[in-house]
Amino acid sequence: MPRNGSDIRRRTKQRKRIMHFGTWNVQSISRKMDEVLYEINKLDIDLAVLTETKKKSQGSENLGMYDYFYSGVRKEKRAGQGVAILIHRKYRKYATTWEGISERIIKINMNIRGYRLTIIGVYAVNDDSPTASKETFFQQLNDEIIKTGKTS
């Protein structure tokens, strides 16, 4: 029996969209950026949180294949701690805002095809850190998580 237009069932093929995430404690980014970019690109990582960057201040840079957002200690302090997010250029247009909360916490907001996504990058304090430092860190982290949950 011949098929007519009403008999044909069309299957719409939904394309899988997979975003690859990674983290890396780089133990100072100053002379390793090329190596880091090479490795995360080789591993097909779309978004990477880098910790212990030891980069001072806050800012962002376009590094060709990736955008680099970072938050570290103030310029007058000795280099230490630091956290950053690298985003592949194919996701660049989805990044709406970013904020360096502290030298240990960074946040980026994205809107990907109608879905809101917040990435919080964290370089946690050591267990042997002073109690006051730990309390401050966890309070800041908790505040950011609560803020993220309240956004609509």
Automatic annotation (TrEMBL):
Pfam families: Exo_endo_phos
Coiled-coil segments: none
GO biological process: DNA repair
SUPFAM superfamilies in the record: DNase I-like
InterPro entries: Endo/exonu/phosph_ase_sf, Endo/exonuclease/phosphatase, ExoIII-like
GO MF entries: double-stranded DNA 3'-5' DNA exonuclease activity
Organism domain of life: Eukaryota
The Endonuclease/exonuclease/phosphatase domain, residue ranges: 22-142
Name of this chain's protein: Uncharacterized protein LOC115877587
Phylogenetic placement of the source organism: Eukaryota, Metazoa, Ecdysozoa, Arthropoda, Hexapoda
Gene: LOC115877587
